[in-house]
Write a structure and sequence with these properties.
The chain is α+β, with helices and mostly antiparallel strands. The chain contains 12 helices and 16 strands. Among the domains are: 4-100, DNA methylase specificity domains (Adenine-n6-DNA-methyltransferase TaqI, Chain A, domain 2, Alpha-Beta Complex); 175-318, DNA methylase specificity domains (Adenine-n6-DNA-methyltransferase TaqI, Chain A, domain 2). It has a 5-stranded mixed beta sheet with strand order 7-15-12-13-10. Strands 8-11-9-14 form a 4-stranded mixed beta sheet. A 3-stranded antiparallel beta sheet has the order 2-1-3, covered by helices on one side.
Length: 373
């Protein structure tokens, strides 16, 4: 935040709804459309603002979709300046020539694309709510230990017996083991970048990075880069099976996700592979999400303190069979619904990405009856 005095002084850097903001340095192809929520925010010197002068001639949402096409992104990267770090400026943006159709066509295109985006955004909100519910249930059962006892009453507050353990007091029939006693834990790997041809941007085996864990949750569906089959064999890269729980433990510690299919990861991510008749991926995911990773560090920098040996030896709480089974029966339907919604969002996003350039180029025309009323 900034002081009121600075806010007044920086008015020329204030954003308004429907402004489009570009990254000025680095990822110069990235852009965002300002919504009601960001109206009045200030933008930094590492950003550039595009503001439509006459909204009767140009729909800002249409312009944002145009700026988001693959062709435009590749073009803006090609005209960026700077030998080591690409950058753009107001002159570069101002000199770009674009073709804008008549307003009614813009509006029809925006209506179709925006309807898809709105569905995606609504779905993300549902996912967030369902995940929050699952984390609340986990906390109630396995941090507060208020799971239902045999009489259906909350265990701890009803006088349930507690015993001391390596992780503090736990219910009498619960146990604590080292993680590598509960799971088959592997660590990912990165092939040498000098070995050309090991990576692909489109095809191959999903290769997950920490950034993928941030952007896709709780299920990882795909990745920014893929490994060719040859790389898997050549570098003896460990596979994470479907439903494996993935945990980042380097640089950014504590990001957790579930593998939606068989995939690989880089060396900053540990694979908590499920064993037969073992702990469910849903419980594992929620346990690792709630774990205090600061407790594993021996230095002031948790990023430097945690390594694969520490992760493999981290304490893992195992409830008794009935409690764990009852919890899994409750939680599995939530995760099933979340995964279905995530997959729907992927299909919708793919559809939008296919439609956008076709609509903007005029190769697909929208009938008048689908236009804005």
């Amino acid at each position: 935040g900034v002081s009121e005095k600075d806010y007044i002084r920086l008015q020329k850097y204030k954003l308004e709804k429907d402004d489009i903001v570009f990254s000025r340095v680095g990822s110069v192809d990235r852009r965002a459309l300002v919504s009601d929520e960001e109206d009045g925010w200030l933008f930094s010197g590492r950003c550039l603002r595009v503001r439509v002068i006459d909204k009767d001639d140009v729909n800002p949402k249409y312009l944002s979709y145009l700026f988001g096409t693959y062709e435009f992104k590749e073009y803006i990267k090609s005209i960026a300046v700077g030998a080591t770090m690409p950058s753009i400026n107001t002159k570069i943006l101002s000199d770009i020539e674009i073709s804008i159709p008549k307003m009614e066509d813009q509006n029809r295109i925006v209506e179709m694309l925006y309807s898809i985006d709105s569905k995606v955004w609504n779905n993300k909100e549902i996912i967030e709510n369902l995940e929050q519910l699952s984390q609340t249930l986990f906390k109630h059962w396995f941090i507060d230990f208020e799971f239902p006892n045999e009489q259906g009453e909350p265990y701890k507050s009803s006088g349930g017996e507690m015993l001391e353990s390596d992780v503090g007091e736990i219910p009498k029939e619960f146990i604590v083991k080292k993680a590598n006693e509960v799971f088959d834990i592997n660590i990912g790997k990165t092939p040498s970048r000098k070995d050309t041809g090991m990576f692909s941007l489109k095809n191959g085996m999903t290769w997950v990075s920490i950034a993928d864990l941030k952007e896709q949750k709780p299920f990882v569906l795909n990745s920014k880069e893929y490994l060719v089959p040859e790389a898997i064999d050549k570098y003896n890269i460990k596979m994470a099976k479907k439903n494996t729980v993935l945990l980042s433990f380097k640089l950014t510690v504590g990001r957790v996700a579930l593998a939606s299919s068989e995939m690989t990861t880089n060396e900053a991510i540990a694979h908590f592979n499920q064993v037969e008749n073992g702990i469910s991926p849903e419980y594992t995911y929620l346990y690792l999400k709630s774990f205090n990773y600061e407790s594993l560090g021996n230095t002031s920098s948790i990023a430097k303190a945690v390594n694969s040996k520490i992760i493999k030896n981290m304490p893992f709480l195992i409830p008794n069979g009935k409690v764990l089974n009852d919890f899994e029966l409750t939680i599995k339907p939530l995760f099933k619904q979340i995964k279905e919604i995530q997959l729907e969002n992927q299909r919708l996003s793919d559809l939008r990405d296919i439609l956008t350039p076709q609509l903007l180029s005029g190769k697909i025309e929208i009938p008048d009856e689908l236009g804005v009323r």
